Amino acid sequence: MAEFLVALGAFLSAHLIPASPRIRARLIDLMGRTPYLVAYSILSVALLGWLIVAAQRAESVVLWDAARWQWQFAFLLMPVATFFLVVGLLAPNPLSISFRTGSEAGAIASVTRHPIVWAFLIWSVAHIPPNGDLVSVILFGGMAMFSLLGFALLDAKARRRLGPDRWRILAKRTSIIPFAALLTGRTRLMNARSLILAGGIAAALYLWFILQGHQLLIGLAPLSTLRYFG
């Protein structure tokens, strides 16, 4: 348990400390922007791997027994999380996290300006019910709380980077809560074709993950587990 808590603390700290504009700017000045991003990505992946291994090695303290509906709950939510992750990475989004740069936000911003944060929040919440041991509850519960904090941190970061006026113009056409801007008439869905393409990629990724990827990376086959409760 001690190793798991240290690994969790290191993972969360590695994502909270660079959120400070002074620390981030100092590191970029010392290393350069590209080396910093590469080093930070490698560190994040390494810490995530350590966290997963530490969670698997920690002693199991069962809080509740797993049931079929709990696994069905995860199967229901994870396609949504996968879609938000894929479309968030592929669409330009100056208001949040994205692999692509651009001064204007892509179509997903009409739905929510923080799709990747929603992906991690949904992923975390989806994995709590079927994993009723103490380590899993701490892990996924901690990730969920971290994701909720991420909404405010990313808004503050974008406001500093874009300036208050530009941020206000872009943010007015979107929302944190999915579909809120669309339902209130503050924006309309543009370039839906890009969302359909991202949905196809997300569907293929999700299918691979439940058939093979989850077992390769985590060591547990979701479909086999679901059939076990059948």
Provide structural commentary.
With 230 residues, this protein is mostly helical. Helix content is 71%, strand content 0%. It is built from 10 helices and no strands. The chain has helices at residues 2-16, 21-31, 33-57, 68-90, 115-127, 134-162, 164-172, 180-183, 192-218, 222-228. The mean pLDDT is 88.
Radius of gyration: 19 Å
Mean pLDDT comes to 88
Strand content: under 5%
Secondary-structure-based class equals: mainly alpha
User: What is the CA-CA span between the terminal residues?
Assistant: 32 Å
Number of strands: 0
Number of helices: 10
List the secondary-structure elements in sequence, H or E: HHHHHHHHHH
The biggest beta sheet reads:
none
Q: Per the principal axes of the C-alpha atoms, what is the gross shape?
A: globular
List unreliable stretches of 5+ residues: none
Helix percent band: over 70%
List keywords for this structure.
10 helices; 230 residues; single chain; mainly alpha; globular
Q: What's the short version?
A:
With 230 residues, this protein is mainly alpha-helical.
Helix/strand layout:
Blueprint: H1 2-16, H2 21-31, H3 33-57, H4 68-90, H5 115-127, H6 134-162, H7 164-172, H8 180-183, H9 192-218, H10 222-228
